[in-house]
């Protein structure tokens, strides 16, 4: 059985990109979680939160690859100390401030640019997770923001997490 791929086209808005990515995640996240659960539960006791990175390494590449195939660029300048998941989720470009220990929320961000290098907006990847055991209590979600500066992105994430507003 082949995996469904998210479908992106070069004329999509940032909101359309997040919707397409979420359709893919809805189809894939739970079966992948169930398939990897035993191994990632064991890994969690050794590497803690890094086990969620192993999960995202399997879930996210089709989204990033298909965005690039449609002509979008998500690349960031990497620093020597960067911890990167699935080639595009950079730990320093994330925030984890919300939720309880058994249902935390980490949000990564990626500015999306067109072929000419113009920023189109930002895709946010939210991964709900537990710090007590390996558990992803609900599907990861891709959200969109129009803002592209670090300040706009952080304000947008706070607005979404604290008030439930996507913009």
TrEMBL record:
Record's protein name: DUF6022 family protein
